[in-house]
Amino acid sequence: MAAPPEVTNKNLTGKYIMNKSLSDDSDDILKLQGLSWFKRRAISMFTLTLSVEHYTDEAGEHIDVEQTLSGGIKGSNEDRILDWEERGDIDDVLKVKVEEVEDEFLKSGWTEDAAAEDGLVLAVDWSDTSKTGMEWKAEMTWGFEILNGERRHARHLKFTSSNKKDGPILKRFYYDYIGPL
Questions:
Q1: Domain that holds residue 132
Q2: Higher pLDDT, residue 13 or 166
Q3: N or C: more exposed end of the chain, with fewer CB within 10 A?
Q4: Helix spans in 14-167 (H)
């Protein structure tokens, strides 16, 4: 389902479901992050739903994401403050103008409102090499794209790993808006 025009990067609040038929497969990334074949296979069988609450308080702008897999299985929660401060295992997050994003893949394809006024959400996450033995970096931009004539929430991911020498992995993930929280 297309996202309504009032849902923007200024207010992402709502429920979204990953559209697997439009999204790129993430198995190669999960493998480079150290997930076993069994876990990767299980993940591929489920559908991901995001419940997003976007708000501002005295600490700044927040985007809290609750992930649920089909069958009501709780996934991880992402509680983010958009201030580029590193918070342990939480990635760095900031709202940026499209022209501030250096990588062409991460900054291309967005709707005009993202380019003109709403900006993009930019999240950067690094592996905890001491825990996993893996070394990787994930850079992701969030926004909206027009795909097949419909406005959809999208995320562009650039993934690099010390175990992959032939350049980054580039992926696009698309979400159907299914309604307010």
A1: 14-179
A2: 13
A3: C
A4: 27-32, 37-45, 104-107, 112-113, 129-132
